[in-house]
Amino acid sequence: MRQNPLGTRRGFGGLRIWVLVLFAIYGGYYWISNRSTDALTGESVVIDKNISPEDETALGLQAYQEILTQEPALPPDSQTARQVREVAQRLIAVIPEVEDALAAEHQMQAPHVERAFDWAVNVLQSDQVNAFCLPGGKIAVYTGLIPVAENADAMAVVLGHEISHALLRHGAQRMTEQKLAQIGQMAGAASGMDQQQMQAVMAVYGYGRALPYARKQETQADEMGLMLAAAACYDPHSAIPLWQRMEAASGGSSQPEFASTHPNPGTRIQNLQALMPKAMEYRARFCKASGTTPAAR
Q1: Which of 50, 87, 267, 293 could share a disulfide with 263, CB 3.0–4.6 Å?
Q2: What is the pTM of this model?
Q3: Which one is catalytic: 56, 114, 162, 218?
Q4: Which of the four pLDDT bands, split at 50, 70 and 90, describes residue 15?
Q5: What is the distance between the alpha carbons of residues 160 and 98, in angstroms, rounded to a whole number?
Q6: Per-residue burial over 233-254, b = 16 or more CB atoms within 10 Å of its CB, e = otherwise
């Protein structure tokens, strides 16, 4: 009589362990089989092979259309819209050579996902101090950012950063990370973890993996964006006062860096200052002070 309950517990505990082992094997296989080296950063990335750049573009277009129905865009011929579009056009024009140069640093060839982009630029009427570039080249700048940016050089740094997110396929990387997190949640649920245990595990994952990963993407976009701005003949040094103004605009109320998806302004400024010699090299190498490309509308 005593052995049956004890045996049941032992069997159930063993089953839990095997469930976790099987999910760990699957998660490891998924991670390894979708791992590659990013030519533009030289770092290992994990992008689900089932997520193609075309899939990202379709999702980006859908999101962009939804945003434009909710946020009024300035007339394309307004002075502000024209000025922002000119900055974006100059950045777009130097993407191919900047990508080739970055990839060459790692003895690799650039993927040039931008060749399939259908660029579009809009300025949205909103107090948000923000901008974005969705996969596929759909760019938006909120009017709340313009007084904080103050000038074209700083706007180029912001747009270079946002464009870099799309070029580096950070959206696909985030979707892949979400799938890995879902695999972990499924493993926890199948193994019998209660809600409190699941929350504790996900908190560890968030602080230990998800948030540092997001901050790393921001740092990558900062670096590539600075190179784009410099190559397009903008002054990369404008990035420093820009982030000082961004910090002031936030009222200094940002959360601690370890709990944020973004580096704090102090860390960001320090990283950007260290990149200035490289940015000035890119400016000397690629700045032709030429006209803009008609690629963005």
Answers
A1: 267
A2: 0.86
A3: 162
A4: low
A5: 11
A6: bbbbbbbbebbebbbeeeeeee
